[in-house]
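Structure ticket #2291
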Amino acid sequence: MTMATVSVNATLKSTRAALSARGLSKSFGNFQAVKDVDIDILQGRIHALIGPNGAGKSTVFNLLSKFLQPSAGTIMFGETDITRLAPAHVARLGVARSFQISATFGDMSLVDNVCVALQRPNGLAVQFWRSLASLSRLRPRAMELLARVGLADMADKRAADLSYGRKRALEIATTLALDPRVLLLDEPLAGMGQEDVQTMARLISDVARDCAVLMVEHNIKVVANIGDDITVLQRGEILTQGSYDEVSADPRVREAYMGTEDDE
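Resolution: structure written out below.
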């Protein structure tokens, strides 16, 4: 995918915020990890949140997914104020997140992993006594989701036998089973080889057609071809925001990221 393609696609996408925050701040005792962050995650777009270790990326991510409560500021899901809601409530509204460590059931097949995830939207989440066999009616939808992430031909394999990149793809399939309106991805490309990075980047771009996507990443070059909007954090505050062309041309960003990487 070229930058020209990204630019054309970006003009065709929505400018409606699916998830937004204003004045988002978080303190741990006397340490302020995040200060006055304003961010809009737009429908149909991929928003990359980048910065070095200690920049506050994970804290902002956990605030938006409600795994942390903010010290100040507001978080809106569309027109709904979710600032004080619990993570489970926010997840039911349509905000789904991944984790840095792939969260799959290793001894179960890929299709069974997705069937388990499909229980909630199909009203079966509390029926914990049901066997996996009783969830067979969910298999057709599970197979559709596996096909979407390129894993349909491995549906009956154990999740533990997958490569790291395919485990991350399976995790996205289980997340998509929740029919999210907003998908929050915590370093989805970390630890992957170049081939897996390209495959996952294409998958994330495909997912963004149906929902808003926020992905945390520490390497600005990784998001060059897939990030429609980029927010750069430094010491818990926004350094700059904009398209890849805009943020990569910022002298402060070039000094902090581009120059260092080019010297390697």
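Closing remark: The first strand starts at residue 17 and ends at 28.
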